[in-house]
Amino acid sequence: MNRNGKAEVGGGIDLRTLRNAAGLSQQRVAERADCSLAAVALYERGYRPSTSTVLPRILAVLNEEGAASANATPSQTSAGHGESHGP
Question: To the nearest whole percent, how much of the chain has pLDDT over 90?
Answer without folding.
Answer: 45
